[in-house]
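hiii, so i know i said id send this last week but things got crazy w the move. better late than never?? heres the sequnce for the chain we talked about at the cafe, plus the structure i predicted for it. fair warning i was half asleep when i ran it
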Amino acid sequence: RPEKDILAIKPNRSQVEGRESMVDPARFGTGRTDPLGPYTFEADALLNYSTEARKESAYLRRELRCSIDRTDKLKQAAHKSVNEGLIQKVAETITLKQHLNLGLGENRHAVHRAQRWYDATEKAMGYSLGPVCYSDLTTREHLDRPFVRIFQRHPGTQLPEAQEIVKSG
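okay and structure toks below
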C-alpha cells in the first residue's frame, strides 16, 4: 500500500499532508532560547525523546503486527497439515476396512465351497457304497414289487445286483 510507504518516510501526519508541525523543533532554529519562556532546552530534549519514543513505538507495533501475522499463518499451516494428515489416515483406514471385508467375504465363500465339496463327496461315497438295509430303498427301488418281479422273469432283464439285493433282503 502506498500509504504505508509514505508513513515510513514521513512518520508525522502533518508532514504527509504537507503541513508544518506546530511543535517542530527544527523550525525554531538554533537561536538562543529564553530560559523563562515556554520552550527550553529541557522541553526540547523531552520533545526529541518523545519523538524517538513514538517512532520506536510505531516500529514495535509494525514488528508486532508482522509477528502476529506470521504466527497466524504458521498456525493455519499447522492446522491444515494436521487436518490433511488426519483425512489421509481416515481414508487409509476406510480402504483397509473395505479390503478386510472383501477378504472376509472371499474366505467365507471358500469355506462354503469346501463344505459343499465335502457334502457332495460324502453323498457320492454313500451312493457308491449302496443301500445298507432294505429300509434305505425308496418304494420305486424295491425289487420285490410285483411289477419288478414280472420284469425280472424275462430274459436279458435280469440284473445280478438286483438279484443279490432280493436274495439278501
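btw The helical segments are 2-9, 13-16, 25-28, 41-129, 146-153, 160-168. thought thatd interest u
miss u guys!!
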